[in-house]
Each structure stands twice: as C-alpha cells, then as structure tokens.
Amino acid sequence: MTEDNSQELYDRALSVMPGGVNSAVRAAIEPYPFFVRKGEGGHVIDADGNRYIDWVMGLGPLLLGHDLPEPVQASIQQKASEGPMYGTPTPVEVDLAEFVVRHVPSVEKIRFVNSGTEATVSAVRLARGYTGRNKVVVMQGGYHGAQESTLVEGDAENPRPSSAGIPQSFAEHTLPVPFNDEDAIREVFDEHGDDIAAVLTEPILGNYGIVYPEDGYHEFLREITDEHGSLLIFDEVITGFRVGGLGCAQSEFGVTPDLTTFGKIIGGGFPVGAIGGRAEIVEHFTPSGDVFQAGTFSGHPVTMAAGLETLQFAAANDVYDHVNGLGERLRSGLTDILADQAPSYTVTGTDSMFKVIFTREGPSGVQRTPEDASGDDREQGPDSLEEQCEAGCRQNATCPRYDYCPKNAADVKNAETERWRRIFWGRMKDQDVFLSQNQFECQFVSYGHTEEDVEKTLEAYKEAL
Ligand SMILES: *Cc1c(COP(=O)(O)O)cnc(C)c1O
C-alpha cells in the first residue's frame, strides 16, 4: 500500500492550513491522514488508489452511503444548476420543514441553519432568551460543536473553558455533570435551580465512545427540568434520523424534549443544522420574537433538497432495516469476538452506530490478555459473560458486565485509548478497514454497506484485537 500522494498533499496542506486540516479531529490520524479521492457505496478510495471499507461515513451525515440514489442525486443537481441560492425563501425548505414536523412529535416549528454547531449555539441562546436565565447544564464528554457555552470542562463547582480563547466568565454559566448520574443533576438544581435555562444533552453520548443512557435517565431529566421551569434540549445532531428511524432517538426513548438540535443526516451530506421544538418557544427567534438568529446560507436549496430526498428515500425504502440489521450483525459479531479475545472490552452502540470501547476491566477482573491480569488482586466479579447485552451495551442492570460498562465520560476516558489509536486503528487500516480516528468518535453503518463488508470487518477485528 503506497501513500505517496496523501503524504505529498499533507505536506502541502501543512504549509497553508493549521495542522494541515479544516477540522481538528481529522489530524488525529498519524503520521498523516489519507486524502480521499472519492466514495463508492460503503467504501472510500484514497488519493493513491487504496480502497477502504468506510465506517466513518463523514462522521455521521451519510445515511445512504457514498452512492446517492438516483432521485437524491437528480434533485441536488437540479437545485445546483438553477443557481445555488437567492437570499429569499424557496419551496424546498418548506417541504423539508413539513417533513420533520410530521415525523418528529416534539417538533412543531423548525429553523434551519448551516451546522450542528450553529444549531446548538442558537438553541442555547433561545433557551436563555425564553427563560430569562443564564445557566446551562451539559454532560461531561458530551459534544455540541465548537461553541463557547459548551467547550467547558471540569464540574459544576469548577467549570472552566476547555479551549483557549474562551473567557472564564463565559464558562461560569455552564454546569458540566457526569452522564447517567441523577444525584449530580439533583445537586445542580438544588444549588442553581432558578438560574438554569436548560439541560442540554445528547440522548446517547455519541462523541465519547457511545454511552447509552440508563433506564429512566431521560424521564428523570424531563421531570426535573419541568419542576424547575428549565428547558430540556436534546442534541440529536448524530442520533437524529439515525436512532429510532424517522422519529429520532426521542421516539425510541419516549421522552419529549422542549427543543431538539439537528445536523448531519438532515442535510443529506451537505452543511446543515436545525433547531426544532414547541412552537411557543421557537417563535421567540427573530423576526417573530426577540432572540436574534439569521444566516446567509440558512435553508440553502441544495442542502434542503439533499436532506428532503434522503429522508423521503429512507421513508419509502428499507433503509433503516438495512442499516440497523447490519449494525446488529456487527455488534453481535464483535461481542462474540471479544468474549474470546478481549473479555474486558465493551461493545457499544445501537441501530446503525457501533464502537468497541477498550475498557480495562470486565467481569472476573478479566483483562485483555491473561498476562495483564496476573498479579491482579481485584475482587472477582461474576465469572461468566452469559446473558450480557448481545449487540451493544444497554446499561442493563442484570447484565454480568453491568458494573464494568462505561456509564459516563470518565469511564470511557479510562479505557486503553492510546492502544486504540496508536496500535489498533492502524492494524484495521492495514486490512483496508477505515474506522473513526480515535476511541471517542462513533462509527456508522450506511445503506451502501453490504453483508460482505460486515464479514470482512469482523475478520479484521479478529486479527487486530
Ligand atoms: C457533530 C455534532 C455537533 C456539531 O455539528 P457540526 O456540524 O460539526 O458543527 C454537535 N452536536 C453533536 C451531538 C454532534 O455529533
């Protein structure tokens, strides 16, 4: 496998772009990322002609894979050929808005923007404007894009910016808590209840190894926010139109947020974001309300057409059956492989999302290899993996792995993240399997993937683990 062209391109890129990339995570691949020339179905082909099975899928937007079905392609090309945009409304944005409102019960009105980041920025501003309060509760390890209010680390007592360039005085309004921890939420509401504008969370942590909520967690968030007059915002930028099909993750969990942010799939592979929710709240955006919100490219006709045709195609075809079926096959195959080769590791994900988290401990204190476990004086847990979640951790309290499965960001961070990135990722790439850049980013099944892609990938995991 040669990579001369990618190396040459990265060399040029380093001279003209910071870190050689336009989005930080892309440079996580060492020594340099491969440059993609084109996609085909569930595969990508790089600048040197190497072909990979692609489970990154643009980091989420590509539900249909790289070959867009004919009606999707036709609509995109037509919109592009009619002049890209106008600065005045177009019919297709009304069609897409109606589609979302019809399928996502909590969404009565929606505003389209140009990225997931822009969606969460606007949702936080809207929540603050609507409630007249400043504070926002977020989950440690949750990701809501590159924005000031959520690039915050630490805990509710000591929040601090997680990036240079953000004033401490901004971070003070953000209260980070561990995911799946009801007591931590109770504490922040006891302390700051009257000042909390919103709890902002991904329904499933999708940017930190995939962490599933414990049973009842979202119901609890719904109740406590209602009690205190705060809003519940679901960031469904990843899960929207992926988990729970066209009803999104909120339909899967049966919890109705006040606001939902969308991105990724809703633009069919083009730059997009959206904020939807109760009409009475969303109407607070300008011009009907006083929370300023605007964008030159918002509701871009090419994006709207790509999003609409993608979702209509998914509604009319077996897209969710296909991607969720292959996702299940991958996760259960991985569960079997881990039971043999790495019993301390955890398979996570649901629907068409999957990941293996390199957790260090499992039932019986089992570690990856017997050598690692020797001399270990950890208390022995249950010594069988029988009846564990078969196809991805569901935080099932009766599962023998329950005490060892990652419940929050700290648990994922404790995993063998360096082994994942520096050893395992390259071993998969050498077998022509492209996984996400590190332990934290999610992996996605698309409509372009096949049974054969899944089988080859499972074989590669067997070799690489
Ligand atoms: C990707 C992502 C974002 C940011 O979206 P961008 O389009 O990259 O700005 C926000 N929230 C979640 C949950 C995401 O996965």
UniProtKB/TrEMBL annotation:
Record bears the keyword tRNA processing: no
Recorded catalytic activity of this chain's protein: (S)-4-amino-5-oxopentanoate = 5-aminolevulinate
Ranges of compositional bias, category Basic and acidic residues: 369-381
Cofactor(s) essential for the protein: pyridoxal 5'-phosphate
Entry keyword Isomerase: yes
Region named Disordered: 360-386
Gene Ontology annotations of biological process type: protoporphyrinogen IX biosynthetic process
GO CC term, one of those recorded: cytoplasm
Known pathway: Porphyrin-containing compound metabolism; protoporphyrin-IX biosynthesis; 5-aminolevulinate from L-glutamyl-tRNA(Glu): step 2/2
CDD domains, A to Z: OAT_like (cd00610)
InterPro entries recorded: 4pyrrol_synth_GluAld_NH2Trfase, Aminotrans_3, Aminotrans_3_PPA_site, PyrdxlP-dep_Trfase, PyrdxlP-dep_Trfase_major, PyrdxlP-dep_Trfase_small
Subcellular location(s) per record: Cytoplasm
Its EC number(s): 5.4.3.8
Main localisation: cytoplasm
Top EC class for this record: isomerase
Family, similarity comment: Belongs to the class-III pyridoxal-phosphate-dependent aminotransferase family. HemL subfamily.
Protein name in UniProt: Glutamate-1-semialdehyde 2,1-aminomutase
